[in-house]
Structures are given as C-alpha cells and as structure tokens.
Specification:
single chain; mainly beta; Neuraminidase; 5-stranded antiparallel β-sheet; 4-stranded antiparallel β-sheet; 1 helix; 27 strands; 1% helix; hydrolase
Length: 304
Amino acid sequence: MSQQRVTALDERLWQLVLPSSPFETLSTGHLWTEGPAYFPTGDFLIWSDIPRSRMYQWIPDLGVRVLDHAANNCNGHTIDPKGRLVACEHLTRSVVRFELDGRRTVIADAFEGRRLNSPNDVIVASDGGVWFTDPTYGIMTDYEGKRSPSEQEGCFVYRADPSGKVEAKIRSMLKPNGLALSLDERILYVADSSASHDAAGYRHVVAFPLGDDWQVGEGRVLITIEEGVPDGLRLDEYGDLWVSTARGVEIFAPDGCPLGIIHTPETAANLCFGGPKNNRLFITASTSVYAVYTAVRGAACPAR
C-alpha cells in the first residue's frame, strides 16, 4: 500500500475522494491492463492483459488468478443488468456475452456485411441495447490483436439492439474509445483518443444528446485532456465523470468543470467502481491494477 496522491482543482472534489484512504496495488507485472469489471454477486474483479490475451480475477482475501489463458485479446468489459459479462475482443473483432451457463454469444462482429475493426469498450443500456466503440487499435499491429486491414469506412460508435440489429450511431469520431451514459440516459459520453497515434488527433470527451428512440443528436466537446488521452469513462452517483488518463483518474462535474485528479504511478487505461458498497475505485494502469476507496458510490445501473 502507498499514500494516495490527490490534486484538487475545485472544492467539490473533497465530497468525492478520501485522501486518507491508502492506494493499494492488487496485481502487477502485466504488459497492458484493461477492461476492469466488478461482479457484485461474487464480490470479485476481472480485467484483461490484452497483449498476453489473458483474463484475470481478483478475489478479496484470496488474491489473483488467471481466469482465461486464451481470452482473444479482450479489451473493455461490462456487466449487464442480468449479471452477465459482456466483452470486446480484439482478436475475433467482436462483442460477445458470456451467458450464466457459460455459453458464449456473439452480439456483433460485422456491420453491413463487413467485419468490425476491433471493439474497444462497451456499455449496456436499461433497454438491453449494447453500445460499443470500434477503433482500429487491435488491428494496427499484432501486439493487441492481429494486424489486418480495416473493412469499415471509419471508426464508429455502434448500438446493437436487443433483437441483434447493429446500427452505426456515431460516425464523426476518429478513434472512439471509452463511453458512458448519463444517469437519465439522455447523454452519451464518448472519449476520442486519436491523439495517441496521430499528432493531429483528438484528446477529448464528447457529449451526445439521446432521444426517446435512442437517436443521437449533435455532439459537443465537453472535456479536453491536457496530458495523454482520455480512455475509460465512469460516472458516480451524482453524474460526475471519472476519466482515465496519463495522469491517473481525472474527475469532472457533469458540466465539464475539472474537479481534481487521483494520480496513478502509471498511465491509467480504464476504471470501474465496485465493492459491496460500490465505493471502491478499481484502476487498470499499464502494468498494474490498483484500488482505492472513495467518498462517493459509482452510478447504479442506468434507467430511463
């Protein structure tokens, strides 16, 4: 354990963080950790080491084990309202769901007859619709997937409805990455991390209004990251945005006002809330996985 380092940019930050809470290292020695997801029914955390194509599990008081040695270079994960794991797989270029009996269901692997790029992050809305981003990171090299040509016209944000229909909802972003829904599901937040590989790219989070029928309105840049790029996104119970970046976890009010930073020893790739009280922040950061308690709970399952 180590002392937590926090930078306050607004007094409201002290309602969200616990500076005296120790910063814990749950696991280390990885190549690139991603996709943390907490299972409340079992009180455990899973995440992926993308280059090693492994999925790991951490259980309180028991420690860490490899849960899957051939995880298809999986990246982002989420837990749907029925408690099922939904995963973005770079190697298979698909979004899949693991049923409660262990079966693997493919939610999406193509759009308009062409293979997806490499699904990156995913969320499930209250109606069962699955939203996911599809940049090309997993097909650019063999390190995080398999080097392959893109078959799509761009990198889009998709929605797979409960019937299985896949629709490109946002086509205006260069490298859409992390995403999150506002508490009332009227805003979709999407990170564009294209500056990671393109000097002319973006490092911002865009807010898109959502209509009653899940139609997407014109987006506006809500947050611009100063160091590195925005990657994973999560909301707390008040609708504040927690964003993983090169500096750690940066926290913003719903209007985009920066509140502060929880610094991490390495670049933070993704994050999620969990624990029995949903007040523990889990962070996948480069070679390690960290945890710290917060003064706020993570957002509950979205509901319209």
